[in-house]
Request: fold
Amino acid sequence: NAGVMQNPRHLVRRRGQEARLRCSPMKGHSHVYWYRQLPEEGLKFMVYLQKENIIDESGMPKERFSAEFPKEGPSILRIQQVVRGDSAAYFCASSPMIASGAYNEQFFGPGTRLTVL
Amino acid sequence: SQQGEEDPQALSIQEGENATMNCSYKTSINNLQWYRQNSGRGLVHLILIRSNEREKHSGRLRVTLDTSKKSSSLLITASRAADTASYFCATDAPGAGSYQLTFGKGTKLSVIP
Reply:
């Protein structure tokens, strides 16, 4: 059973370009979470998605950032018109469906390191 | 408010010694977890401790939780060079949004062979 997969692992963009980060959850997992890690910092929650639904995007910047998790295919984190401050590692995690009130362990992917020139 | 502040920020020890890292948080939690991150890599889940637990062991790892002090410690015994990594604690809070893990800035551990 493959773990959470993210690609690309490294992405270089020039200011103003678009960045598309992909995340394939573990088999059988229907919940996806995106986190951002700035240099020398811990991870910060961005968005939580289930298939075809955004459940919580409270940690995501209001402009230029969007996320989706379509019925088929990977989850996509999209950053439009990137700026230097977007340079960071972006991690995706997934979890299975769980009973209400139970803890759902999140399994992390290896991350995508975005560098904006 | 920021959860999960680890200290020290950096720790350097000799192989074979024990390493202790601490984590403090500000609000009520459901669970506290520790993760390891090797340089430039993803996160590896080490151990989870629930708010009603006080101590947990896994191999060479020992985690304690003191909810009255809102703090946790991670002890790695008989350290190895391969333990060199950054260690993060992460908390999740009760109620809506409990899926949001809140991470601290981490402790950078260097184990010198």
Observations:
- Chain B has a mean pLDDT of 90.
- The interface with chain A takes residues 4, 30-31, 35, 40-45, 48, 50, 88, 90, 92, 97-106 of chain B (CB under 8 Å).
